[in-house]
Design brief:
This protein has one domain (about 15-315). About 70% of the residues lie in helices and about 0% in strands. The chain has 14 helices and no strands. α3 (about 40-60) runs antiparallel to α4 (about 75-95) and α7 (about 130-150) packs antiparallel against α14.
C-alpha cells in the first residue's frame, strides 16, 4: 500500500517552520531577477535547470522516481499542466519586473491566494466564508490601488496610459508600468493553478517525485519558448550564472519546494498565504541592495498593505 504523503510522523518537521523558511527563500526572487541583465525566459530556464540538478540527485537517492509508474495518464497530464503554468508564471512575473516596480509586481503577483480561494470551492471542496470573501474584496481594491499608483493622474490617466503607447522608465509610470502590472496579474493566475494542482497531486506523490515532474515540464516549456523566440541561452557570464544559481537555491528549492512539501500537509489556500510576506521581504531587499535602491511610493505601500490585510482576513474562518 502506498504511503499517504500527507501523513505526518513524529519526526516530520512542522509545516509552519517549513513555510517560514520558504518565505525567506521566495523573498530573494524579485531583487535577484532585477539584478540580472538576462531575458526573463533565459532567467527562468537557467533557474529551473540548476534546480533540476539537485532534484535529480534527490530522486536517485530516495528512489522517488518509482512513484511515477503508479500514476494514471490523467495525473501525468495534470503534473505537466502544472509545469506549464509554472513556466508561464515565471515568464510573466520575470517580465513584469522589467516594466513596473518590485513592490508593485510582487504585491500583484501575490494575489494568487485570492484566485485559489475562488477555485477551491469547486475543485478542492474548500468553500470560503463570508469573512474570507470580504478579505478577497479588500485585496482586490488594494491591487487596483497598486496598479493606479503606477499611472500618472490615477483614474483619469488610465485611458491615456493604455492608448498613448508611451513608455515609463522601467520601474515607474506610464503604460509600461501598467503593462508590467498586468503581467504580474497573469503570474498570479498561473501560480494559483500551479498550487491547486499541487495540492491534489501531493496526496499521491512525495515532494521529490512531484517536483521532479513539474519542474521538468516547466524547464522544457521555458526552453522551447526561449529557443523559439530566438533567445540566447548560453554561454552566460559568471555574474549571471551566480544569479541563476542563487534563484535556484533560494526562491526555487528553499521557497517553491518547501511550499510544495507543505502542500502535502496543509490546504493549498493556507500554503499559498506564505506568499503574503514576500512583498515585505522583497521590498526591503530592493530598498537596501545597492544595485536596486528602489524605495516604493506611497500609493504602492498603501495598496500593498490593503492586499496583505485583505488576504490575511480571507485566511480566517
Amino acid at each position: 500500500m502506498t504511503r499517504d504523503p500527507s501523513a505526518r510522523s513524529a519526526t516530520t518537521p512542522s509545516p509552519w517552520l517549513v513555510l517560514g523558511a520558504a518565505l525567506i527563500g521566495i523573498s530573494f526572487a524579485a531583487p535577484l531577477i532585477r539584478l540580472s541583465n538576462a531575458d526573463p525566459l533565459v532567467i527562468a530556464t537557467w533557474r529551473l535547470g540548476f534546480s533540476l540538478i539537485i532534484v535529480a540527485a534527490a530522486l536517485l537517492i530516495t528512489g522517488g522516481w518509482r512513484a511515477w509508474r503508479t500514476l494514471a495518464a490523467r495525473d501525468l497530464m495534470l503534473a505537466t499542466g502544472a509545469g506549464i503554468l509554472l513556466a508561464v508564471h515565471f515568464w510573466s512575473w520575470n517580465a513584469s519586473l522589467r516594466f513596473t516596480s518590485v513592490a508593485a509586481s510582487v504585491a500583484l503577483v501575490n494575489l494568487q491566494p485570492v484566485f485559489i480561494a475562488a477555485a477551491s470551492a469547486w475543485w478542492l471542496d474548500e468553500v470560503p466564508s463570508r469573512r474570507q470573501w470580504g478579505g478577497v474584496s479588500i485585496a482586490v481594491v488594494g491591487a487596483l490601488v497598486v496598479g493606479l499608483a503606477d499611472i500618472p493622474g490615477g483614474l483619469s490617466g488610465i485611458g491615456a496610459a493604455i492608448f498613448s503607447g508611451g513608455a515609463g522608465d522601467g520601474s515607474g509610470g506610464g503604460s509600461r508600468a501598467l503593462f508590467g502590472d498586468l503581467l504580474a496579474l497573469l503570474g498570479a493566475v498561473t501560480a494559483a493553478g500551479y498550487y491547486l494542482i499541487g495540492r491534489r497531486l501531493r496526496k499521491q506523490l512525495d515532494v521529490w517525485s512531484y517536483v521532479g515532474l513539474v519542474y521538468s515540464a516547466a524547464f522544457a516549456t521555458c526552453l522551447v519558448l526561449a529557443l523559439g523566440t530566438g533567445k540566447v541561452i548560453g554561454p552566460q557570464p559568471p555574474r549571471e550564472l551566480a544569479i541563476f544559481a542563487g534563484l535556484a537555491l533560494g526562491p526555487m528549492l528553499l521557497g517553491h519546494t518547501g511550499m510544495n512539501w507543505a502542500l502535502g500537509h496543509l490546504p493549498a489556500f493556507v500554503v499559498n498565504l506564505t506568499t503574503l510576506g514576500e512583498p515585505i521581504g522583497a521590498t526591503i531587499l530592493a530598498a537596501i541592495l545597492p544595485g536596486i535602491a528602489e524605495v516604493p511610493g506611497v500609493g504602492t505601500i498603501v495598496g500593498g498593505a490593503l492586499v496583505l490585510g485583505g488576504v490575511l482576513l480571507a485566511a480566517r474562518r
